[in-house]
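To start, one record:
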Amino acid sequence: MYFLSGWPKRLFCPLESLEQPLHIQTDPQRAFFAVLFPSQLSIWYCRPSVLIVSYKELSKAASQFGPYKQAEWRPDSRMIAVSTANGYILFFEIPSGRDKYLYEPIYPKGSPHLKGTPHYKEEQCAPSLNLEVKKVLDLQASITSLQSMLEDLLVATADGFLHLIHWDGMTNGRKAINLCTVPFSLDLQSSRAGSLLGFEGVYIRDMEYCATLDGFAVVFNDGRVGFITPMSSRFTAEQLHGVWAQDIVDGTCVAVNNKYRLMAFGCANGSVQVYTIDTTTGAMQFSHKLELTPKQYPDIWNKTGPVKLIRWSPDSCVVMVTWECGGLSLWSVFGAQLICTLGGDFAYQSDGAKKDPLKISSMTWGSEGYHLWVIDGNSSSNMKPERNANNEAQRFGILQFQFIKSALTVNPCMSNQEQVLLQGEDRLYLNCGDAAQTQSPRNPSAHSEHNYSRERGPFSDGSLDSQGLSTLLGHRHWHVVQIHSTYLESNWPIRFSAIDKLGQNVAVVGKFGFAHYSLLTKKWKLFGNITQEQTMMVTGGLAWWNDFIVLACYNLNDHQEELRIYLRTSNLDNAFAHITKVQANTLLLSVFRDIVILFRADCSICLYSIERRSEGLNPTASIQILQEVSMSRYIPHPFLVVSVTLTSVRTETGITLKMPQQACEAESIMLNLAGQLIMLQRDRSGPQIRDKDNNPNQRKHLPFCAPVVLAQSVENVWTTCRINKQKRHLLEALWLSCGGAGMKVWLPLFPRDHRKPHSFLSRRIMLPFHINIYPLAVLFEDALVLGAVNDTVLYDCLYTQTSAREHLEVLFPFSIVERTSQIYLHHILRQLLVRNLGEQALLLAHSCATLPYFPHVLELMLHEVLEEEATSREPIPDPLLPTVAKFITEFPLFLQTVVHCARKTEYDLFEECLMAQDLDTAASYLIILQNMEVPAVSRQHATLLFNTALEQGKWDLCRHMIRFLKAIGSGETETPPATPTTQEPSSSGGFEFFRHRSISLSQSAENLHSKFNLTKTLSMPSGPSGKRWSKDSDCAENMYIDMMLWRHARRLLEEIKLKDLGCFAAQLGFELIGWLCKERARAARVEDFVCALKKLHKDFLWPFPVIPASSINSPFKNGKYKTEIPEMPQLAAFPCISLVP
C-alpha cells in the first residue's frame, strides 16, 4: 500500500537561531507547512522544502506569552493560530505578496520549458508570504489542544473548558463550555440521562474533529476516551452529548479517519485502539487494534512506552504511529502492518550493534502522502544546530521521508487489473516486465504445457484478456517509468494513475490535465495545447477501455462536469475527444466490459454504455446513458464511498448454469462504504426477464434490489470479467482484502456434473484466509496474489569516521521496494474441507492441477494441518488431518507430498527407497534421520545415498550430498540446517526443509523449473568452471569426501568409462588433471590397448575406421607398390583423451 523509498532527507535551515523545532503542521492544501520553535514561527514551501518566511517573537513578548506549543491552520490557509504555554493564542495572518515569488527556476537558453504557460509562477515558484500578528487572545488557562472546525477554532484548556472561537470577529463569537456539564453515557440513546464527569480537574488532553461523524474524538487527562457530538447546529453545553469507550482507561492521543469514520486512540501500553460509531445506537464500537506482537518483535514489543503521535495519511489509507521511546510504524486502515523501524536494519547496524530508535516529537504528512516530515526528538533535546564557516546550517531537526504507494489508494478502478502499479511523486513502478516482449492470451492448455517463457512474439493488436504468468511474476525488480518533467513541473503532484489490461500503456493525472506513456515506443504524449490541459481538472479518476482513456473531469472554462474519452493513438487534443456533460460532480469511475460506471456527489450511480466507432482516419468512441440508481437513502455522506465497481457476481449462481450468457453481464454493483462492502444485484423476479426481442440499446434495464452487506473492514475488492469454463471457481469469485484480518474470498459453489444442487447448500460461501504479504493484485487463474514489500540495505560500513556518525546513511538503511507473490489456493482448499465441502474442494483442485506449483500447494496444506494438530497439547475433537490425507490421495503425487511433510520414519523405509532406486524420496527420509539420530548415523546413511547417486549420475543430488556431509563434519547438524527460501520442483526436492519454507513465488518464472540450492552459504558449483573446495583444507570431512570421489573416479577409469569420468569431473568440479597425474602409474595405466580402444569407441558411439574394397583390389598404381589409407576427416573431431599425461 505505502512503501518507504531511499534515505530520508534532512532539511537545512538558514535561520540564525539556536532553537530547535518542536511542532510541525501542514496547511489543509498541503502546499505549505509551519514549523514552531519556542519563540519563532516559520512557514516553509512543500516542493521544494524551502523556508519562505519566519517570525521571531521579541524577548519581552516571549516572556509574557511563554514558549510556543501548537499551531493550527485556518481551512483556507490564510491564517494560523499558535498557542503558548501561558494560555495565549496568537492569530497570524498570512498575506501573500502580489506577483512576488521566491526561488524561481532558471532554465538554459532556448529551453522549451513552459515559462509562458498559464499559472506558470503559481505552480513552479514559491510565493512570497508575510506573517503578521492580527490578534492576541488570553484564555487565562493552559491550552491543551487546538482544532480547526470550518469557520471556528475549538480550543481545550486545562481548566476543563471548551472555547469556540470564530476566525473572524473572535471576541464576539467566543463561547465557553464547561465539560462537567456535558452528559456522558455508553450510547446516544441514553445520553440525556447519562452521568456527568462529576469531579473537578477533568480536561481534554487531545481531540480531533471528524466531519463525517459530526463530532469530536477526545482523550481526557485521566486516560478515558470518548466522542462528543452536537445534537443540533448550536454548539452549546445543552446540545452537546458524549459517549464513552468502556475498555480504554489509559488513552494518550487520538487521530480520526474521515473516509472510514474511524477514531484511533493511542494508549499507554503501546497499542492503538480503533473505534467507530454504531449508526443505530450511537455507541462507540470497537473495530480493531494496532499493536506489535512478540512473535515479530520479541525484544521491543512491550518496551515501546506510550503511544505519542498518530497521523492518518491524506488519502486515509494508512496511519503512522510513533511511541515515547521512539520508532515509526505504518499500518493500513484496518490493521495490516506495512513498515516498522523497531526491527531489522533500522534497529541494528551492520556489525550487529543496536541503534537508538528515532524519537519523534511531531510529524505531518505532505501532499498525496508522498512525504512525511518529522521532528527528530533526539536532535531537539540533545543537540544544537551547527554552522559552518559560511554561516550555513549544517544540522536541523526536521527529516523528510519519501514514500511510494499503490495506485489502488486513489484510483480503485485498478482493482480489475492483474498488474501491480505503484506511483511516486515523479515516477511509476510497474510489474508488467518489458513491454517489447510478448504475452499470449490465456488458454486452458497454457499451464499444462508449462509455457512460461518470457521470450514471446510481439504484441498483437487484438484484445488480450491477460498477461502471461512469467511477465506478471517476472523478477524482483520493477519497470520504472519516469514521469515527463514538462508535465510534472506545472501539474505536481501526481494524483491518479492507471495501466491498461495488456500492461503496454500507462496514464497519469496531476493537478490539471493528464498524460499517457507507451511502454512499446518509450514515449510520453502530452497536450499540444497547454490551455486545454490547464482548464481540465480530473475529479473521479481515470481508466483504460481498449485503446481509449476514460476520465471524469471538471471544465474550468465552462464550469461544467464532463465525462471524456480520448483515443490513445491520436494527438492529445480536445478535438479528438468525445465529451459528455454530467449533471453532478463525479467522485469515482470504473469500467466493466463496455459499461462505464460513475459515482457522483449526489450519492447516485450512473451507468453508461461505451461503443467504438470507426469514422474517418481515427476511430472514436461514443457513450450513452443506460441507467441511474439513487443511493442517497443508504449513503450518509458521498465522501465515505471508497470504491464502486460493476461485476457479474450474483448470489444465485444456479442461473449461470442454465443461462451461461448471463455470466458475463453486469449483474451487480459492489460498493465499498467506509469499509463495509455492499452489493446491489439486479432484480430478475419480475417479467422483464422475458424481454428478449427488444433492441439491446433500447431495452429496459432491470432495476437493482435493495443493498446487501457482504463483509466488514474491506480495504480492496478484486473481480474479473473474463470467462474460463475450466476455472469457474476462481474467475467468478470475489476477492477481498481486509487489512489485519487477511483476505476473504466469496466463492461460488457448483453442483458436480451439472446435477441439481441440494436445497440446503448455499450458492456462495465467504472464506477467510491469511497471507504473509499485503495484496495489491490477484492473478485469478493462477491462484496467486501479487504484492510488494519493503527491503533495506545497510551502508553504514562506508562511514567509519567519528564525524560521520550522524550521517543519515549511518542512522538509516536504504529502503527499496521489491515485488513479491504468494500462493493462496491451499488456504481455500483447507477452508472448504473444514466446512465439509470436500466435493467443491476436489472440483477446485482438479481445475488447478496443471499449475506448475500445484504439488507445492498440497504440501503446504498438509504441512499446516500437520503442524497445528501434531503439536497441539490438547486433544482435537474434530481433527482435519485424516480428511486432508484422504483428499491428497486423489492426486498422483500424493506419495511425494506425504514424504515431504513427514516427521518420523524407520530405517527400512530409507533402505527400501535405495533398493527401489528412488533417490529423491530417500533424500527426504535422510533429512528425517538426520533430525532424529546422531551425526555418525546420518553420515553412514548419507554415504550410501551419495555412492548410489554417483553411480546413477544424479549430479544435483551429489552436490547437495557433498554439502550435507561437509555440514556434518563441521558440526552444523547439531541444529537443523538452514531453511531454504523457496521450494520448486527438482530432482533434489527431498532436501528442502518444509517446516519453515516461504511460499513466495516472486522470483522469475523460469525458476519454477530450475534447480535450487539447499542454502546459499555452502553452495556447490554448477558447471565446468566451478571449483570445488581448497586442496589445502585440513578438514577431515573434506578428506573423507575426497576419498569417496577418488574411489568413484578410479573405478570409472579402470573400467575405461571416460565419458562418464568427464561428466563426473565437470559436474562436481573434480580436479581431473591433478588427479590423473597421481594415477598415471596406477589406474591410468593401460594393460590391454586393443580392449581399451574398443571401449572408447563404444563409450562415445564412434564407428571404427574401414578400409574401402577398392584400395585392396588395386594395390599397384603407376608401376609402384603403394598401400592407400582412406582419408577420414571425421577423426579430427574424435575426442582425444590421453590416459597418461
Remarks:
- The mean pLDDT is 79.
- The chain has 23 helices and 60 strands.
- The radius of gyration is 36 Å.
- The longest strand covers residues 619-630.
